[in-house]
Design goal:
Elements (H helix, E strand, L loop, with lengths): L1 H21 L19 E6 L8 H16 L2 E6 L5 H10 L4 E5 L4 H7 L7 E5 L8 E6 L1 H15 L4 E6 L4 H17 L4 E6 L6 H13 L4 E5 L4 H11 L4 E4 L12 E5 L3 H14 L5 E5 L8 E3 L11 H16 L10
Parallel strand pairs: 1-2, 1-3, 3-4, 4-5, 5-11, 6-7, 6-8, 8-9, 9-10
Antiparallel strand pairs: 10-12
Helix pairs in contact: 2-9, 3-4, 5-6, 5-10, 7-8
């Protein structure tokens, strides 16, 4: 009897030990299946402009959100002021973000200083010429898209005077101005074309003021390349009435002033953001310089017909734009990058 009791006591004790071992909670960093769980990749977007520009900032942030939803990234947006660029980028690198996007050439100096300190972090610079192992500098040939909008402007102007309003004298703005002016002259050398700079991408009041100056001098078509400052151009177009047009730099411009925004460039910056996130996830994102243009099926011009029932694009205008686009793609036309 005593022997039997000892055996029962021993068996119960062993069962308690085995049960305790089997109910041990998974260790931190484990999925509970014996395999360590992977933390999500993290991506940050550092922008010198605020959301609400109906352009690059809004589209790139939407693409960042798409990467969060579809690729499982943890994301963050930093809207910083001049003088805070390097501090903001370094803070994201220090906090362990795997992928850091810097918008516009104003971020180039900051990234050039921070990137060498964090070789395991990948940086993507939108508009710049950094050639570093862990930095992908992505440039779009905006001059080609703006050339096509210049063709549109020359064809729809009745006063034969057209203009482009850009935000500031920075690299991509200079290319946009050069492309637009070249497109106008290629389509109709008799059309007068000029350009002006708002001096800010976030000053609708100044944008409206300059637009009215141009309209009052007989210019009847203005292309906008000034982000949120273009809200003032919209107001001016609306108030000036019939015979005054704006051409956009964002699909958000189409239909914004019914019957008054004839076409817009379509530079899909957002695709660049999502594509970079996917490549980092796949392990295929590389550093270096990258230029994207019409030959890469990147960009072009979109007419307002599908966005604005008051506008119907003449077939001959579509044909003219298409023919110029093919000449750019084939290399027959090389679009200038410096304003005349």
């Amino acid at each position: 009897m005593k022997t039997t009791m000892k055996r029962l006591t021993f068996i119960l004790a062993m069962l308690m030990v085995l049960t305790a071992c089997g109910s041990k909670p998974p260790a931190e960093g484990s999925s509970g299946s014996g395999e360590p769980s992977e933390a999500p990749l993290r991506a940050a977007l550092v922008s010198p402009q605020k959301l609400g520009d109906n352009g690059v900032v809004d589209f790139t942030y939407a693409s960042l959100q798409k990467g969060e939803k579809e690729l499982g990234y943890e994301i963050k947006l930093i809207e910083c002021e001049s003088g805070e660029y390097e501090e903001s980028i370094r803070a994201m690198a220090r906090d362990g973000y795997n992928l850091i996007f810097g918008l516009f050439t104003s971020m180039q100096d900051a990234i050039s200083r921070v990137a060498p300190e964090y070789p395991d972090t990948h940086f993507v610079l939108m508009f710049g010429d950094l050639d570093m192992k862990n930095v992908t500098s992505i440039n779009t040939k905006v001059e080609e898209n703006c050339f096509l909008n210049g063709v549109v402007a020359a064809n729809i102007s009745t006063t034969k005077k057209v203009a482009i309003l850009a935000g500031a004298e920075v690299a991509d703005n200079l290319r946009a101005v050069a492309g637009f002016e070249a497109g106008v002259k290629a389509a109709d050398p008799a059309v007068e074309v000029t350009h002006m700079y708002v001096g800010s991408f976030e000053d609708p009041t100044k944008g409206k003021e300059l637009a009215n100056v141009l309209f009052n001098e007989g210019y009847d078509v203005i292309m906008q390349w000034c982000a949120a400052s273009s809200m003032g151009i919209r107001e001016a177009v609306m108030e000036q009435g019939d015979g005054h047009y704006m051409l956009g730099s964002s699909l958000a411009d189409l239909g914004s002033v019914p019957g008054r925004v004839y076409s817009s460039t379509d530079t899909n910056y957002d695709a660049v953001i999502y594509d970079s996130m996917k490549k980092l996830q796949d392990g295929t994102l590389e550093g270096g310089l990258l230029w994207l243009g019409l030959a890469d099926k990147f960009g072009g011009v979109v007419f307002a017909d599908d966005y604005d029932e008051l506008i119907q694009t003449p077939p001959e205008l579509r044909t003219a734009v298409s023919e110029f686009e093919q000449k750019i793609v084939s290399g027959e036309i090389t679009v200038p990058t410096d304003p005349s």
